[in-house]
Amino acid sequence: MPAKQRKIALMGFRSVGKSSLTIQFVENQFVDSYDPTIENTFQKTVKIDGQEFVLQLVDTAGQDEYSILPQSYYMNIDGYILVYSVNSQKSFEVVQFVYDKLLDMKGNIGSIPVVLVGNKCDLGFEREVPVEAGKKMAEKWKVPFLEASAKENQSASKVFEQIVNTIERASGNVPEKNGCILS
Ligand SMILES: Nc1nc2c(ncn2[C@@H]2O[C@H](COP(=O)(O)OP(=O)(O)OP(=O)(O)O)[C@@H](O)[C@H]2O)c(=O)[nH]1
What we know:
The chain is an alpha/beta fold. It has helices spanning 18-27, 89-106, 131-141, 156-170; strands at 4-11, 39-48, 51-60, 79-85, 114-119, 145-147. Strand 2 and strand 3 (51-60) form a beta hairpin. The longest helix has 18 residues, at 89-106. The protein starts with a strand and ends in a 13-residue tail after the last helix.
């Protein structure tokens, strides 16, 4: 089967680790320094369940509750990875704001593939967002949820596999599976 092209946007508050998750997945490395993103696109080819996918990953500039999302974030994007960091309640609020914006713009979010990610789960001692809060939000949205750590390379590649599977399910290419993945 020919490779499928999929375009995925990572969105969420500043400094939650959108770039770090992407770089961990694409280049298998973690960069400790913080360099705010304007917008970057990465590409990686992966094989999932025997199917090759060419993933274009749009690492967006961080949003906040005042952001006006550019049209390009709504057009030609197959799925969204919405990222907050578990040590920032504010970032959890921003991810809800972003979801609502997407819902407004896209109409029926039920048909928009989304994965919710609580990053920086290695910072348990600074935790402001309980696992249950992330789980509950994802259940409300009916989307998969994972906690991850770009730093410790926990679930970074799972996040991307999960969004690809969610996109495939939404387009009717994979049988429906129950529940959320939490790790
Ligand atoms: N402890 C810890 N730090 C992390 C993790 N992921 C990212 N960071 C750090 O958090 C800071 C911000 O990470 P970025 O990946 O640049 O965050 P971003 O969401 O792309 O930020 P913007 O470009 O502003 O949107 C950097 O100093 C990273 O090293 C993680 O899983 N654990």
